[in-house]
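Methods — Computational structure assignment.
A single polypeptide chain was analysed. Its primary sequence is given first, followed by the predicted tertiary structure written as structure tokens.
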Amino acid sequence: MYLDPPEDIRREWKLRRDCAERGYTREQVLAELERREPESAAYIRPQRQQADISIRFAPVAGRPEPDGTQLSAEILLRPTIQHPELSHVLPTMTGAPCTSS
């Protein structure tokens, strides 16, 4: 499974976690992210192409983005493994159940 948020959201998640839970300063987290960027580009992001399940997060189009705003998620299921039925846990905007394709 590959989680694929936009880079600005990913950085914010890491900042919040590492400052709140791990005791790092904002500057320390940003410096570490910068230091590790070449490895991320070379080894982490290419894994998206091979993931059986890829989840892309994004702000909801047309909705303001105050802190704590929920994100939309796009789920890509590749036919490389048998996937569980997800329609009962993935509501749609209309409230109708999702269908498998």
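Note: Residues 26-44 form the longest helix (19 residues).
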